[in-house]
Write a structure and sequence with these properties.
Blueprint lengths: L3 H12 L25 H12 L7 H9 L5 H10 L6 H14 L4 H4 L2 H18 L15 H9 L18 H9 L7 H9 L3 H13 L1 H6 L4 H14 L17 H32 L8 E5 L3 H11 L4 E5 L8 E4 L7 E2 L9 E7 L2 H26 L4 H21 L1 H13 L4 H4 E3 L7 E2 L2 E2 L4 H15 L7 E8 L22 H12 L1 H9 L9 E8 L5 E4 L8 H25 L7 H10 L15 E4 L14 E4 L10 H8 L1 H17 L1 H4 L7 E4 L3 E4 L15 E3 L2 E2 L6 E6 L2 H10 L1 H8 L3 E7 L5 E7 L2 E4 L11 H8 L1
Length: 805
């Protein structure tokens, strides 16, 4: 009887514990323990520690620093420690935690399995060759036939592979190879065997898992599967006579975990209490505010924590409204830019693209000027690349061009900001794509693969209306700006981690352009008016892109009429003022001179030796869902995601449902990636950028081989070797809405409620119908009163039941 089906089923079950890893050029921030989210947090980190070896809680030194800096309230800490059964002094308990951590340390090198290590090295070598995405000059032969077949073809020529076991005569099909290795083991052991083998190289297996799920050109051209990977791995293990029998020992929590959990909960409660109190207080003030009238302009930024800083400073410069919306602007698309070789997903990884949008040239003259200059530059780059790579010409090229390269290296090292000025001036002479291209948003009645090209009128109206509904808009300024975002950095494999996570690690400008194009369409505006969105005739929508490294906001203003020239000029001037203040704040946070902050951020962006061009989303800890008035008077220190939402314009709760099931889940992924990369960077992060070794345009090694690193580098998280900049806290979400309405959404979405029940994040509701009282989610759709109102009103049944117990 064939064992293909049982093997496939066992592989699928085992693969659920492996987190997904996207290619480094499109880095998506995701929970490395996403496969464990159906378990309580404390159990999940214990099981992950058994399989991956990673620590699940911050170190005692991190807790000491938090206590010293006043980040953990002693009263909260006392409550949590007492609940866990501890009554000693916190410092004594941290010393005890130190002892437990040291006792569990062990000698890793002494326990290493040299046979398994050898298999890891061989397998990593061939995975990097097979999975290369355009970096290699000489490709692994026969990749088109798939990984297993290609490996069969090279195995006999690799001196590192013993001519023993089934490797000496590999079956033609991977299932047959797996079946032969598993023959001594009963079927109930297959899943644990596969789990241990998949987590041996979690970076590579996570990458394979995601590549299979995404499909795409590389996967369709050079196919690979986890079955093929396991067939090769098990065959290699058989060749070196390694023991693959799974451990039968149960997974126990680390002895320090219970104590660490109490410290962590107290730290989180301290941050959450301050955030909730501020939101609740401003909520009561918001109820008394009079409408402020029509703003000069409205700017919509991504909910990204870095947007919070620039938004504060923009609002301080004039009569501007800023709003937060997920950076793909609600349009799940596959986007292909002008001259781009491939299309990229421009939506969160939890969504599938629904449309293909392509940039289409509309200005022949500007396009010709762009093509002429870029053609010259690309031809020169191709010649240089050929000369550098060709064995016959490389030495002569170095002899001829060496002095020029030396001068360029010296300039980029000593005066990177001057080099940036030079390149910026050169780039300014070449028209950008958005100056002569328009996104093709109208429905074309044709398909690109499985995706329709463009959108119907009804779909465009729906996307625009959804955006306005989610943000609770009832009035429009003369200028409305949708600002995507992207980072700027030199010589940084992790540059895409600074781009828009809601756009799958790509710049957000294209998504902003698509929504602006939709909203400017007269047919769409007519449909919007029928749905209650009365857009004035003098409202103009335009796109832009926020450079999160330098805080420059580049406006794409090709469609702004002359009648709005003064508005645009004033907005540009105010954006520049806001930039100066925002960069001063960022420079101070990075320990740099704030007096020339714009220049300093430009230097960091251009300096190829700069390991920390910006802090990215480091520090993220909160997510506020509600009107901007709740937070407009607060300095949230760039630590909170901000999503605009007005419960009073969402009577059916549809907008709230979309936010809780979409952006909140994505921000939880971002938060957990930062959390785990901080608490154990060696396992869940990617180590120091200084020793990164990019491989195949798909990831990075530490050193010259091994597993792909799965998380964020140390420089994105640490101020110094022993000083975390990122405070490793689970996400605290605060929603401004009736608690019954939030409960209804959670009742309909068990997966989201499960994240809360299992303590992967917390949720507090500030209820505007109950004098902005705060209710904290406990579990099983029950709430507890988190604060007392000035004038008490009846509590919801769920909260009353918990509070009365």
């Amino acid at each position: 009887m064939s064992t293909d089906a049982p093997i496939d089923d066992s592989i699928d079950r085992a693969a659920t514990i492996v987190g997904s890893l996207w290619p480094i050029h499109s880095f998506v921030t995701a929970n490395p323990l996403s496969g464990f989210e159906d378990q309580p947090f404390d159990e999940a980190v214990a099981q992950a520690a058994g399989l991956l070896g990673g620590r699940g809680y911050p170190s005692p030194e991190t807790f000491r620093a938090a206590l010293d800096h006043g980040q953990i309230d002693p009263e909260h800490l006392g409550t949590e420690l007492a609940a866990a059964g501890y009554d000693d002094d916190p410092e004594a308990l941290l010393d005890r935690m130190d002892d437990k951590v040291d006792a569990e340390g062990g000698d890793v090198e002494a326990d290493a399995d040299t046979a398994t290590d050898h298999v890891d090295r061989v397998l990593s070598k061939w995975l990097s060759a097979f999975l290369d995405e355009g970096s290699a000059y000489w490709s692994m032969p026969n990749r088109e036939a798939g990984f297993y077949t290609a490996f069969r073809g090279v195995a006999e020529h690799d001196g590192d592979i013993p001519d023993a076991g089934i490797v000496a005569d590999l079956p033609e099909e991977p299932a047959a190879a797996i079946e032969r290795v598993l023959e001594p083991f009963p079927e109930h052991q297959w899943v644990p065997i596969f789990e241990e083998q998949l987590t041996a190289l979690p970076g590579w297996t996570g990458f394979i898992k995601q590549r299979v799920a995404d499909g795409g050109e590389w996967q369709s051209t050079y196919p690979i599967s986890l079955k093929e990977y396991l067939a090769v791995r098990l065959a290699l293990l058989d060749a070196v006579d390694a023991d693959i029998e799974p451990s039968n020992d149960g997974v126990d929590a680390h002895p320090a975990d219970e104590l660490a959990g109490a410290f962590l909960r107290a730290w989180e409660a301290t941050y959450r209490e301050d955030l909730v109190e501020a939101v609740a207080t401003d909520g009561r003030s918001l109820a008394d505010d009079e409408p402020s009238g029509r703003p000069d302009a409205q700017l919509v930024f991504c909910i990204d924590t870095r947007s919070e800083v620039i938004r504060r400073h923009i609002e301080a410069t004039g009569d501007y409204e800023t709003h937060g919306y997920a950076g793909f602007f609600g349009i799940p698309m596959e986007y292909q830019g002008y001259e781009a070789d491939v299309a990229v997903d421009a939506c969160p990884p939890i969504l599938d693209p629904q449309h293909r949008i392509t940039d289409l040239p509309t200005d022949d003259t500007t396009q010709e000027r762009h093509d002429r200059w870029t053609g010259i530059r690309e031809a020169a780059d191709e010649v240089i690349e050929t000369l550098e790579a060709n064995a016959a010409t490389a030495y002569g090229f170095v002899e001829t061009a060496g002095s020029g390269y030396g001068f360029a290296l010296a300039a980029r090292t000593l005066v990177p900001e001057r080099v940036r000025d030079l390149f910026t001036a050169a780039d300014d002479a070449v028209p950008d794509d958005h100056e002569f291209c328009e996104p093709l948003v109208h429905h074309q009645h044709q398909y690109a693969g499985d995706l329709p090209v463009g959108m119907t009128t009804e779909e465009r109206v729906e996307y625009a209306a959804t955006a306005f509904d989610l943000m609770g808009w009832e009035e429009f300024g003369r200028l409305v700006v949708f600002a995507g975002h992207a980072g700027e950095t030199a010589n940084n494999p992790y540059d895409s981690s600074l781009d828009c996570g809601a756009c799958a690690g790509n710049p957000g400008g294209p998504s902003a352009r698509v929504l602006a194009t939709i909203c400017n369409d007269e047919e769409v505006q007519a449909g919007l008016r029928e749905r209650g969105h009365d857009i004035p005739e003098d409202t103009v929508f335009l796109a832009g892109q926020h450079n999160t490294t330098t805080d420059e906001v580049d406006l794409y203003d090709g469609h702004v009429p002359e009648s709005h020239a003064e508005d645009l000029a004033q907005l540009r001037a105010d954006l520049e003022t806001a930039r100066e203040h925002a960069t001063a704040e960022r420079a101070a946070e990075m320990g740099a001179d704030g007096s020339a902050s714009v220049r300093e951020t430009e230097r960091r962006a251009a300096d190829w030796a700069e390991t920390r061009p910006e802090w990215g989303l480091a520090g993220n800890a909160g997510f506020v869902i509600g009107p901007r008035g709740l937070t407009s008077d607060l300095d949230l220190d760039g630590r909170a995601f901000l999503h605009s939402y007005d419960w009073s314009t969402d009577p059916d709760g549809d907008a709230l449902e979309a936010i809780l099931t979409g952006p909140m889940v994505v921000t939880q992924w971002i938060n957990t990636q930062y959390y785990f990369s901080t608490v154990d960077n060696a396992v869940y992060g990617s180590g120091s950028k200084v020793t990164h070794n990019p491989v195949g345009n798909v990831g990075v090694y530490q050193g010259n081989g091994g597993d792909l690193m799965t998380g964020l580098p140390l420089q994105s998280l640490m101020a110094a070797d022993d000083e975390p900049h990122h405070q490793p806290l689970r996400l605290s979400t605060v929603v401004h809405a009736p608690v019954e309405r939030v409960t209804e959404v959670l009742a309909e979405h068990g997966d989201v409620a499960g994240l809360l029940d299992n303590d992967w994040l917390s949720l507090t509701v500030v209820d505007p119908t109950q004098d902005h009282r705060a209710f904290h989610y406990e579990s099983d759709l029950e709430w507890s009163a988190a604060s007392e109102a000035v004038e008490a009103r009846p509590e919801p049944p769920e909260a009353r039941a918990v509070a009365d117990d």
